[in-house]
Amino acid sequence: MSVQIEDLELLDAVRDFALDHPHPDVGRFRASMRARCDCWQAVTPTYLAAADLLDASRLSIDPRAGTLMSVFERHKKRLRWEQSYKKEQGLVPDAMLAGYGFAEIIGRHGPFISERIRAGIGIWGPNIVYPVHKHKAEEVYVLIAGSAEFTVGAAAERRHSAGDIVYIESNTPHGFRTTGQSLVVYYLWQAGDLRQQSQFGE
Ligand SMILES: [Fe+2]
Question: The pTM is what?
Answer without folding.
Answer: 0.95
